[in-house]
Design a protein that fits this description.
Layout: E1 2-7, H1 12-15, H2 18-27, E2 30-35, H3 40-52, E3 56-60, H4 75-83, E4 88-97, H5 105-122, E5 126-131, H6 134-145, E6 152-154, H7 161-169, E7 173-176, H8 186-193, E8 200-202, H9 224-235, H10 239-253
Parallel strand pairs: 1-2, 2-3, 3-4, 4-5, 5-6, 6-7, 7-8
């Protein structure tokens, strides 16, 4: 039993052939998928997906790239949308991306905080994107977690060992993607080796970041088995146990019975 904790099933590469994508995932023992929202428009498809497939869950949030187009988003809107659907189990993806800077940094921080406050108010997990923003991401999360019940999942972790340790110290969950199967990722492997099994999840981020041997192709949830293989090797734990641990962490974090 495997959980893909982060995919984008509403994207055309997957949505246009979703029944086949789901069938291939089930054949690889993927029992849970979380399809992640990036814009209000994407949420309309996500609602249809989670209604159709019992084992697929969703989120609502605004990707940092889209912050400049969604300045009016606030916690009331996020709260109202999520409360209308019990299969919307998280807030995000949100966070900071200072690599591309498609949106102003201060605006990204403002909307990130609005998502944080909504997740805390709802007592459901926050899915965080962080690229070239380790310092700022950690400072905001550590400050906000001090006096709240905030639950955090850092998605597609590619950070440093120091960042991993800091995130674990504030009790964040951390998800790894197919990037760990790429060549020349020894620093990332080292960072992942520091993350306790109790904090680990796996994801595809499909249709992006297809793992080896599918690198360069459109990714899909069934390919997550290759990420699990690599993670098992890094942690020196057999694949079945790794699948059990990461799926258990997924169900615990998102309160899925």
């Amino acid at each position: 039993m495997i959980a893909d904790s982060h995919c984008h099933l509403d994207y055309p590469q997957l949505y246009e052939n979703l029944d086949d994508v789901v069938k291939r995932a089930k054949s690889k023992q993927i029992e849970y998928m979380l399809t992640i929202c990036t814009t209000p428009k994407s949420f309309e498809k996500i609602k249809l997906i989670v209604q159709k497939y019992e084992f697929i869950y969703g989120t609502f949030g605004i990707h940092p790239h889209e912050a400049k187009h969604n300045e009016a988003i606030d916690k009331k809107l996020i709260t109202n949308v999520i409360n209308k659907n019990t299969k919307i189990v998280g807030v995000g993806e949100t966070g900071l991306d200072f690599y591309y800077n498609h949106s102003d940094k201060n605006l990204q921080k403002k909307i990130f905080l609005e998502h944080i406050h909504a997740a805390s108010e709802l007592n459901i997990p926050l899915i965080v994107h962080s690229r070239n923003a380790e310092k700022e991401t950690y400072e905001i999360l550590s400050s906000e977690k001090k006096n709240t019940n905030l639950k955090v999942l850092i998605h597609c972790f590619t950070g440093s060992s120091d960042f991993a340790k800091k995130l674990v110290n504030i009790n964040c969950y951390i998800s790894v993607s197919g990037i760990i199967t790429f060549k020349n990722t020894s620093d990332l492997e080292k960072a992942v080796s520091f993350i306790p099994i109790e904090n680990l999840l796996v994801e595809t981020d499909s249709p992006y970041l297809a793992p080896t041997p599918y690198r360069g192709k459109s990714n899909e949830p069934s390919y997550i088995v290759h990420t699990l293989d690599k993670l098992s090797a890094i942690k020196n734990i057999n694949k079945d146990s790794m699948a059990s641990y990461t799926t258990g962490n997924f169900k615990k974090l998102f309160n899925i019975k």
